[in-house]
Amino acid sequence: MPSPVPSHYAQPSFYLILASIPALYGVYTFTKSEDNFITRFIARYEAKPGAESDRNAAISVLVQKALEDRSLFSNAETDYSVDLKFPEKFNVGSPINVAPGESGANLAELKAFYTKKYQAAEERRVARLNGNDRPDTKEIEARLGRSN
């Protein structure tokens, strides 16, 4: 009985592997250089000549552009208004919560009342200072045993 042919020789993967060996050798000889693999690998990550000056020039252009933009924004008028989705909200507020001086009421009498009250208090204070009628000094002098 003849010996059976091993099955691994008849499969297509065997012939692909067999054909890839000379193909890889051809690629290796075609791409071969004077430097070894490690030197070429390190050279990929080294800085190219002039790359630093190019990078510095690009950064200086960006910084100049940023300074121009900053000066534009710092000299521009500031808009303090806010766009609202529902501006009618301001018109439905309480009539009691009104800032002083913003209402339609006449506040002249109220202003005159408090002005008069302030002037009277100021006159009493000046009279006390001019007449040496200061209660705090009288109390301290009494404790020290002095009298005027």
Estimate percent helicity: 55-70%
Mean pLDDT: 79
Biggest sheet record: none
User: What are the low-pLDDT stretches, counting only 5+ consecutive residues below 50?
Assistant: none
Shape: elongated
| Cα gyration radius (Å) | 48 Å
Structural class: mainly alpha
Distance N to C terminus: 150 Å
Percent strand equals under 5%
Number of helices: 5
Describe the structure.
There is one protein chain. The chain is elongated. The protein is mostly helical and 148 residues long. It is built from five helices and no strands. The mean pLDDT is 79.
Secondary structure layout:
Blueprint: H1 12-31, H2 37-44, H3 51-75, H4 108-130, H5 135-144
Task: Give a short synopsis of this structure.
This protein has 148 residues and is an all-alpha fold.
Keywords:
58% helix, mainly alpha, elongated, 148 residues, single chain, 5 helices
